[in-house]
Specification:
74% helix, mainly alpha, single chain, 21 helices
Amino acid sequence: MWRQEDDALLARLTDEVAFERLVQAQMGSDASVPWHASGLCAAIRSTPGGVEVLDAARMGNVTPLVERLDPAQHLNGSPELLHHLALHHARLAEALGEADAHVRSIIAWLALTRQERYLRELGEAVVGGALPREELERTLAEVPMWPIDEIGERAKSGARDLTTIAKQALVVLRRVPEACHMAGVSNELEARVTQRANSHMAAAIEDAITPILTAIAETTARGEPTAREGAALMQRFAAVWHWSGEDENVEHAAVDECTPLAWNHCRQSRWGDLGILIEPIWPLIDSLTRRIETDPSKIAYAGRCAQMLVFKADVARTEVETTAIAERALRICPSHRNARLTLAHSLCEQALRLLPGARAPTHHGCTTAEAMIKRAESLYSASSRLPEAQKRLAEAKKLLGIAS
């Protein structure tokens, strides 16, 4: 006689076979099957169409089961299912190093935080009477932060060595707002969780930058570093920047540390050395410039970033390139003295090439040069090149019969 117990046994065996198929499909045929986690399939069985999904997996077609593991489909599902999904995707992320799996785990975990009764019963079952009521309440309030803190520790533990695991952790932390949105959490919880993720990112990036700051301090204590030594230090900032996912804080640090080194070369007119120094961090400067161009609220770094652009303009190969870079510096910091001086000087140089002494003047060239000189006057009237440009403009007008 077939008994109810036999139905339960058959269902459990089906769940275990389906789970084994799932693990092998997602993690590889040689992956160890965590049998204690096969309750995931039992939780799936209770969902609409779950029996058919598991039967298909048992027969070798795991695609429907994999599709059913998206936590966004089960935000209002049973807490047991959400708990299993959070753990399963965390194991998957651990095995494969997939940021997407980490995000799905966080989505499931955040959705689970709405199941207060389940979490309370789970917490009481785990700690029993070991914790006072107040401490248990504080622990339960921190439940949403558990996966964030775990990933944050991964980011920090590998930050100084710029490990791949730490890099992936930063990617996941940066996607926490996305996970909050997918999980449908409250604005208050999203703000708390995002702030925690941001704190972990900032700490990890600070840990990655600290050895560079130490190296710069030690190098400069021995005297002025050479251009090659400075460039090697700047290259380390570039490495951290790429590792961090092009984080803005790394751009700030690079600008802060490069500026005094760049001034040393600039004051001595060592233009080749200046170019060598700033070349490794030019992508960082370009990125920070774009941030300021698109978000005026980032004005705090506008002046410092503009000065780095001026340094770049100083070593540009052509006057046209110099002008373009100086124009960009003025867009982010219109009052920047050195940017105005550099642009005025460059405009005068270009104007002089259109005037007598460089070539026979033309009406078009004279008109173009006059516009450049007028702009140079408005930018920086004390430019050392202005008197010569103004003199040559007057000569051109006289030759062409143009009234001044």
